Structures are given as C-alpha cells and as structure tokens.
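Request: Not sure, any thoughts?
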Amino acid sequence: MSSSPLNQDCSLQRLCIRAGLKLTGARRVLIRLLTHSNDHLSVEELHRRALGFDPRISIGTVYRTVRLFEEKGILNRRDFALIGLRAMKQTTTAHITT
C-alpha cells in the first residue's frame, strides 16, 4: 500500500521533530518540495521552487536547512559531479547531491 502525500509530509516532519528541529515555515516548504519531488534536486533548484511558495526564502536558508537535514540524517547527499548534477531527496526515499 502506498502512502499518501500528506502522510509522506508527516513522515518527514516526524523525522525533523525527532531530530529536535523546529518546523519553521521555510522548513515546511522545503519538506513539502522534497516529499513531492520525483527527481533529485540541487539546492539551487530547491530554492527556485521554494520561491513559488514563499518569496522570502533565501538561498542561504535553503543551504543551511539542507546542511542541517544532512547532519541530522534526514537527507543523504549524493555527488553526481561526473555527469554535472547535484541533487537531494529525503532519506526515506532518496538522496542529496553535491
């Protein structure tokens, strides 16, 4: 049985809460984008998409949040440098790339 998008959002939110992270507005937007993305996102692409939800989210906020999620084991980073791609995804289904 597949989980609904809302359950996926909640799952990633629970990982954040268990890691002791506050669910700020920007983090909620990033969680939603990561959960509903079908591809590996670069930080830059994640930021571009986040601006559609909240134009106040800075690229610095996205970089800091991604780094924090990685440190807490919420995201995995993957390096696709050989093919010129950077991407990230939640650990429950995918990865992060440098």
Notes: The chain has one domain: 5-90. Residues 5-90 form a domain with the Arc Repressor Mutant, subunit A fold (CATH 1.10.10.10).
